[in-house]
Design a protein that fits this description.
By secondary structure, the protein is of the alpha/beta class. The protein has helices at 14-25, 69-79, 93-98, 100-120, 154-173, 195-207, 228-240, 257-267, 296-302, 310-324, and strands at 5-9, 29-34, 59-63, 83-86, 126-132, 177-182, 185-186, 214-216, 222-223, 226-227, 246-249, 255-256, 276-278. The strands form four sheets. It has a seven-stranded parallel sheet, sandwiched between helices. It has a two-stranded parallel ribbon with strand order 7-10. It has a two-stranded parallel ribbon with strand order 8-13. The longest helix is centred in the N-terminal third of the chain and has 21 residues, at 100-120. The protein binds NADP nicotinamide-adenine-dinucleotide phosphate and ligand F7E.
């Protein structure tokens, strides 16, 4: 069987690293776009590398940026992928209030830059767009593909443009372009400033004697938290589906930030109230209160369902952070 070629934007991120692992396991040639940085930014994928001179090497990286159309066009032309997984983004909701213009450029315009490169390519390329449950914003739960969008941040507004431009290229040019509307998904590779990882890492640092407290914002908001590798598996399934379409990917369960705190602190037999302080700097000008997805379409049409649930996820993340600090874990 002919070896498939995938191009992954955002390959150095949480999802990019799991997706690259899964595609390599399926014998794909995997190309990724990375940004030039003054420090190494490939720690999540370093374990996947073989020397590029090795004839068995199947992972290749290219410098580019979603803000730079010429680099994107050059890479798409050079790699000639069968499938593109577009994950590259300024993905932090709180930060998007500080840098709204940059967020719009990378998240919204970056997507149309990449779609234009795909439209002009000589071969047919399937396109996956990393859409987000943030699109639903203040719409009442449970949220499905039929729920109206009400974005509540510059990040969500930029993702809304990206969602619609993907649908527009599908309708206008017959492209195989699909949106995965993914609810929050976490893992030991989650960025340290997202709330779940901030909590598990914070607990490990407190136990290691490095920190005394964790400073957080709104503890009342509720999220539908799943496990990132389950969600990257859904991305793959979306592009193998018989037709391009849009899918909600979620666990169907929702928990507050406070519940995540309670769960993690109870695993190490401490009372979170002794270690958590509220710092208003982490509040958002407008908040998304409750997200709870209905992924029944993905279950029916893609055969997808999440394997890991809330308690197991909290334990896995805390265990990994404790071991990183040289402590005995909780697993
Ligand atoms: P992440 O860990 O923040 O990774 C983002 C990736 O995008 C990183 O590889 C980052 O590179 C890259 N990137 C940032 N700015 C870029 C630019 N200007 N040009 C090229 N690449 C750039 O995010 P994630 O959690 O893996 O999420 C993957 C995608 O899914 C994102 O589009 C996110 O918005 C979306 N999403 C995430 C979730 C979730 O819960 N995780 C849910 C729904 C949708 P560096 O490593 O150099 O920073
Ligand atoms: O916040 C509250 C915060 O930053 C979750 C991204 O992957 O998922 C992610 O966006 C909740 C919010 O994730 C802190 O106010 C309290 O209500 O972990 P988060 P997010 O904003 O839901 C969606 C689906 C994406 O698409 C995004 O790319 O937790 N919260 N205290 C806090 N959040 C943070 N970050 N830090 C705090 O101290």
């Amino acid at each position: 069987m002919e070896q498939k070629v995938a191009l992954v934007t955002g390959i150095t991120g949480q999802d990019g690293s799991y997706l690259a692992e899964q595609l390599l396991e399926k014998n794909y040639l995997v190309h990724g776009i990375i940004r030039r940085a003054s420090t190494f930014n490939t720690s999540r994928i370093d374990h996947l590398f073989k020397d590029i001179h090795d004839p068995d090497a199947r992972l290749f990286l290219h410098y580019g940026d979603m803000g730079d159309a010429s680099s994107i066009w050059r890479i798409v032309d050079h790699v000639a992928p069968d499938e593109i997984y577009h994950l590259g983004a300024q993905s932090h909701v709180r930060v998007s209030f500080d840098i709204p213009e940059y967020t719009a450029d990378i998240v919204a315009l970056g997507t149309v830059r990449l779609l234009e490169a795909v439209r002009r390519a000589k071969k047919k390329i399937k396109f996956y767009q990393a859409s987000s449950s943030e699109l639903f914003g203040s719409s009442a739960p449970p949220q499905s593909e039929k729920t109206a969008f009400h974005p509540r941040s510059p990040y969500a507004c930029a993702k809304a443009y990206a969602y619609y431009i993907v649908q527009n290229y599908r309708e206008s040019y017959g492209m195989f372009a699909s949106n995965g509307i993914l609810f929050n998904h976490e893992s030991p590779r989650r960025g340290e400033t997202f709330v779940t990882r901030k909590i598990t890492r914070g607990i490990a640092r407190i136990l290691a004697g490095k920190d005394k407290l964790i400073y957080l914002g709104n503890l009342d908001s509720k999220r539908d938290w799943g496990y990132a590798p389950d969600y990257t598996d859904a991305m793959y399934r979306i592009l193998q589906h018989k037709k391009a379409d849009d899918f909600v990917i979620a666990t169907g369960k929702t928990h507050s930030v406070r519940e995540f705190l309670e769960e993690c602190f109870s695993l190490v037999k401490l009372d979170w109230k002794d270690y958590v302080k509220i710092d208003p700097r982490y509040f958002r000008p407008s908040e998304v209160e409750v997200l709870q997805g209905d992924a029944s379409k993905a279950k029916k049409e893609l055969g997808w369902s999440p394997k890991m649930q809330f308690k197991e996820l909290a334990k896995l993340m805390l265990d990994a952070d404790m071991k990183k600090e040289g402590l005995k874990g909780v697993l």
